[in-house]
What we know:
There is one protein chain. The protein is an alpha+beta fold and 66 residues long. The protein has 3 helices and 2 strands; from the N terminus they run H-E-E-H-H. It is 35% helix and 9% strand. It has a two-stranded antiparallel ribbon with strand order 1-2. A hairpin with a 5-residue loop joins strand 1 (27-29) and strand 2. The longest helix is centred in the last third of the chain and has 11 residues, at 41-51.
Amino acid sequence: xxxxxNKKPTDQQAKPKVNKALEGFEVSINSFGEIVSxxxxxxxxxxxxxxxxxxxxxxxxxxxxx
Length: 66
């Protein structure tokens, strides 16, 4: 039977590359099942509005008017 190799994550592997605006952002679930975040929902939404195109608006622009 093959031996199991336990790889311990290093500091580089544990932290993914993120945008500088989201540095320090962490999400976890507490004992009550609530999602706990280090950034507010408004900050996250502002980041998403700035960096991601809104697909629903694009679809409405692409459809011809009837």
